[in-house]
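User: I'm curious whether this sequence folds into something compact or stays loose and floppy. Could you predict its structure so I can see for myself?
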Amino acid sequence: MLDNLPLKRRKDDRPRRLRRGVFLLPSLFTVANLFCGYACVVYSTRADFDTAALFIGIAMVLDTLDGFFARLTNSSTAFGVELDSLADVVSFGLAPAILAFTWGLWPLNKVGWAAGFIYVTAAAMRLARFNIQTSSASDKRYFVGLPSPAAAAVIASTVYLYPFGLQDRETAFPALAMVLVPAFLMVSTIRFRSVKAIDVGWRRSYLALFLAAVGLALIASHPRVALVVLSYTYIVSALVAWAYSRLKRRHEYEAPQEPVEDWKL
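Assistant: Here's the prediction. I'll summarize afterward.
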């Protein structure tokens, strides 16, 4: 019986080791996301803007996968949540700001790096607010403020469309909007629709799958143009929906009420 004890212990340890590996899987994707943010900064300083922008795109995919596997394996932990937020600050806050500055804001000198700092601060505040509001959010279909990956996608897709960089002060000034507009949208209270919760109608059909295939085909055939169109369309559609809701609410408030007649007995 004593000879069988080590064998039994090894058999009992297998489920425990497997469970430990499952808990580490989402964090591995998070670390890979963090690496992509670091790599984006490195390639930005080397003026390899094509590669730097691609690393932000890869970080967005990895950020989606770590949450997906955490929900799939029911292995979400407080450590994983904090690590994910810190990685997102680097990949979707610091890295896009460095990329934007080295690509086109450097001719503006102090104005350029100040705009980058505003973007980093907005991304950090957006992620901190998201962590606080996640548990108390009543409507999971919407984000309050522009998600930081979507803000980073605006910068990355623009740079990927024109990876040659801006070399003079006159062309650098319009590039400020590429950084400051997403920054202010991140700290705003405008609601942005979660892509996972978008309802395309006809739940029992394959319309969503077909639209995803069309999107992939466009990205594969014309990646630079398609990525810019997707990132900017997401922001513009949210702004249009916000403006429409405000106008509708104002119209309902200002609509004249029908007079009530007093009946005499």
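Summary: The first helix runs from residue 5 to 45. The chain has a mean pLDDT of 83.
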